[in-house]
TrEMBL record:
It comes from Saccharomonospora azurea NA-128. The chain crosses the membrane at residues 12-36, 42-59, 80-98, 110-135. GO terms for cellular component: membrane. The keyword Transmembrane helix applies. It comes from the Bacteria. This is Membrane protein. It is found in: Membrane. Residues 20-140 form the GtrA/DPMS transmembrane domain. It is a multi-pass membrane protein. Keywords: Membrane, Transmembrane, Transmembrane helix. The keyword Membrane applies. GO terms for biological process: polysaccharide biosynthetic process.
């Protein structure tokens, strides 16, 4: 990759998937721990999503999209929060729905956690491709969106 340029599409996709996998791992630990301690599926999945989304922003922004400098609020942060928020709502919604659907089945604690975790992961997988496309095309599509970054030569 030339200095000052963002990586090619397949490199961005691989790096975004890798940073997303790391974020998913953080989210998984949070989700399973919170469910184990008795949190509702909605609370557990919402906290787990945020726990993964914060480090994912910094890692993906720099590594996957090659962004440097201070992000602009309207050019990068707000669109990022919108895209991630929609992805989070999808994951939290699916996990909450699964929690409500499994409640009458009277599943044991461990089995219920496995089912809810599988739904949470499925939600992540479903929205990843759409999230990547939106981040790539709407949020991180131009290099001049950050303050303090060097201009491409």
């Amino acid at each position: 990759m030339a200095s000052g340029r963002r990586p090619r599409l397949l490199v961005r996709l691989f790096r975004a998937a890798t940073s997303s996998a790391l974020a998913t791992g953080i989210s998984q630990v949070s989700l399973i721990g919170l469910l184990w301690w008795g949190a509702t599926p909605m609370v557990a999945s919402a906290v787990a999503f945020v726990a993964g989304a914060i480090p994912n922003y910094f890692l993906a922004r720099r590594w996957a999209w090659g962004r440097r400098g201070t992000p602009t609020v309207t050019g990068e942060l707000l669109p990022y929060l919108l895209v991630i928020g929609l992805a989070g709502l999808a994951s939290v919604g699916l996990t909450t729905l699964a929690g409500r659907l499994t409640e009458p089945l009277d599943l044991s604690g461990f089995v219920r956690i496995v089912v809810l975790d599988a739904v949470f992961l499925t939600g992540y997988a479903i929205v990843f491709v759409m999230k990547f496309a939106l981040l790539d095309r709407l949020v991180f599509h131009r290099e001049e969106r950050t303050r303090g970054s060097k201009s491409p030569t």
